[in-house]
Amino acid sequence: MTPEQFRRHGHEVVDWIADYWTRIGTFPVRSQVSPGDVRASLPAAAPEHGEGFDAILADLDRVVLPGVTHWQHPGFFGYFPANTSGPSVLGDLVSAGLGVQGMSWVTSPAATELEQQVMDWLADLLGLPESFRSTGTGGGVVQDSSSGANLVALLAALHRRSGGATVRQGVEPERATVYVSSETHSSMEKAVRIAGLGTDAVRIVEVDGDLGMNPGALAARLERDVARGYRPVLVCATVGTTSTTAVDPLAAIGLICQKHGAWLHVDAAYAGVSAVAPELRELQAGVEWADSYTTDAHKWLLTGFDATLFWVADRAALTGALAILPDYLRNAATDAGAVVDFRDWQIPLGRRFRALKLWFVVRWYGAEGLRAHIRSHVALAQELAGWADADERFDVVAPHPLSLVCLRPRWPEGVDADVATMTLLERLNDGGEVFLTHTTVRREPVLRVAVGSPATTREHVERVWALLTEGHDWLAADFAAQAAE
Ligand code: PLP
Description:
Blueprint (H helix, E strand, L loop, with lengths): L2 H21 L13 H4 L12 H12 L21 H13 L10 H17 L13 E5 L2 H16 L4 H4 L6 E6 L4 H9 L7 E4 L9 H13 L3 E8 L11 H11 L2 E5 L24 E5 H4 L7 E5 L2 H8 L9 H4 L19 H35 L4 E3 L7 E6 L7 H15 L5 E5 L2 E7 L7 H27 L1
Helix pairs in contact: 4-14, 5-14, 6-8, 6-12, 9-10, 14-16, 15-16
């Protein structure tokens, strides 16, 4: 493709995306294809001869769109959001066009230095501690996912705990312990397995009524383990759990970690970016105790996947665990110790120029625009929770400090509540106007309504509430009729 052809077709693609965003509300939110449908509409073999761009573009509509669940749809209330935005897409386009592989400073100095600067900006915007700034002992880096960030945090913690011995001798699976709660994201357990510790190393600490980790239980668990000769390596505290956005009390947990020399990793994958709004920072009071911190701009900060913001207070622990310098990567800047090489901060060697999209997003919206984005969703979720609180057909089952509301429908006597709740969920999702997911709270299924798509307005939240209440009434009547038969 020549630059001129690229220009022409590039404009067509941008038009296609703009049109998609304009008509996104007309699609059913959840893809309605059956397993195998998408593959069945594709040829069995790759084309022998190149095809015209028109044919490729037409297949986006014919093959791809029917198999897409529309995460940017204003009726998308499932999981956590996966925001994207115009500036994010355009930043990614530039990154793709430059085709830079930024593994070392020398392989493209702008890729490293822009990332350092944007991560320092973002640490400021989120009110994170000074220790995370590149100007001190720490620093920030863009990772591919919070799952990846949880893993590198654990590797850094193992390195520090062993005084560097893990590099030569590996981990001590029979002595190392890692502390989570029942609400911690499963990626932490996965990290433990990948790190070679095995899940016997995981201690699951009890949670309080609000589903946050109980610090007294953590302290007792650590004391017991230390007395038995275990070596506590890392405590993973979550700000905004996946299930209900519960918050582990960082200040109390931080003190306990310090006492035992355990690394405090804060997983704020979804909720962390809410700290752009100063009034929401109270949720992470005590974050200054953290040794590492992860939050995903690709969930709720208008930046397309992948853009995990990861900071460490002591970058030496991270690079100690991950740095490796084969001869072919040696260069004067690295040898002089004058630069940061981000390949030493992550698992893969190669890395994309992801800071570009973050830079575009932060500059386009400004701090003010990012705050407005977060605040609008929080306000909408609080309204929804208010309607549900005032309605005898639903219980709000967990604190909702941000933009996720967990609802448990109430059903008439004699109705199997779990079955009815899951039936309501399927009914709503089959309808195509909205998409919700579920979780389990105190062993009962509940509906999660996560307000977070950039296009969602009050009108869409009113609509999801209307669908929930209408669906509830219809099902309750239906179940009652069945019982009467
Ligand atoms: N941690 C928490 C608290 C999460 O909620 C999630 C995903 O929702 C993750 C980690 C994993 O995030 P990622 O998809 O960036 O790996």
